[in-house]
Amino acid sequence: MTSAPVFDAKIPEAASPKVEFISLSHLNPSTELNPIPTRGIDLKYFRHYVRSLEEGGYDYTLLPYGAASADSFVVASAVGQLTERIRPIVALRPNTTFPLVGAQKLATLDQLTEGRAVVHLISGGSDAEQARQGDYLPKDRRYARTSEYIDLLRRAWTEPEPFSHEGEFYRFDDFGPGFAPYGSPIPISIGGQSDEAFQVGGEKADIFSFWGEPLDDLRGEIDRVHDIARAAGRTTLPRIWVTFRPIIAQTDELAWQKAHEYVAKISDTFGKAAYGKQRFITAGSPQNVGSQRALSFAEKSELYDRALWTRTAAVTNAAGASTALVGSPETVAAAILDYVDRGADLVSIRGYDTLADAVDYGKHVLPLVRQELAHRAATGTRGTLQAEHLGNYAEEYRRHATAGQA
């Protein structure tokens, strides 16, 4: 059993004073639990999904990008018009869009949404996936390209006079001034676990994203990216985004029953390569360091800290964000707060039963986290949620987690 830390009233020094929530927008009802062969957009479902995020109190939604996916810019524009408050995050691969055109598209989205646009730059973790759209640049140079791309985005948004550029990856003459964002420059997010990712993210990103990892390991990674930022002379450090796939039910016991049902279905789905892009990414050892780390954690243990479960990563070959938080809404909210206490202030939670889970999180998890943070702001002390809902720090939780297993 994992040893329980002391949950006293003192707010940890590294704790973020606020948290904002991210989900991922889904275009149709196909899920890892129940894959439906499709390459299209179910417009009625998509509208329902996005509006559910707005009603559920989410702050952002990520519009993913892949060689065989819908275009993230177009989908983000639709999100902007279907909502009043949600901030669309455009996933963008630098190899697919010239930086000045990317700046123009993002500024247009920002104008249409009155300042809500965010961009998440994907340098590319798989040579095979990059090659599907004609990108043969080696992985280490892809982050160098991202670094140059970030500089050009910001210059395109802010330079008051025309400028020229001749770099390693891009060249142009007498551009500008470009089309401006609605207000302040658009936040730029990147992620990754390679040395190159940390260097570029620490030096230049507004947001650095991680997949869910054990608390101590993640804190070390946060320190690493922030140390790079400080060494680069930055006074504003990158915000920290962490992603989980929570599995919740009314009680911890019921959540674990659901979790074991889910992982059996997910394992079957991935074994058949029956869900979306899995046919491209499940074979062999993952090339990206993030997936390698996730599988390494899964090999060492299925359970970490209060509620982090790695078996979902193991059965999917860590294909994307896949680590789960398992428990009652109170246990999962307490686990999220553990990460907030370590410095995360953007938390992405998306489920395996996509729409139903998004609705449930909005009703049952987000309010608990926000209630605790409101208590901290009002009193200067922590509430009791983390002390009362111990999850894996209590013996009963572990019994539920292992019930029925050989």
| Class inferred from helices and paired strands | alpha/beta
Order of helices and strands: EHEHEHEHHEEEHEHEEHHHEEHEHEHHHH
For this structure, what is the CATH homologous superfamily?
Answer: Luciferase-like domain
- Give the spatial strand order of the biggest sheet: 1-2-3-4-7-8-9-14
Q: How many distinct beta strands? A: 14
**Which CATH top level class fits?**
Alpha Beta
Assembly status: single chain
Could you say which overall geometry the principal axes of the C-alpha atoms support?
globular
For this structure, the CATH topology is TIM Barrel
Which CATH architecture?
Alpha-Beta Barrel
Number of domains: 1
- Helix share of residues? 40-55%
Largest sheet: 8 strands, parallel, barrel
Output the radius of gyration.
21 Å
Distance linking N and C termini = 18 Å
Number of helices: 16
- Low-confidence parts, pLDDT < 50 over ≥5 residues? 277-282
As a percent range, the share of strand residues is: 5-15%
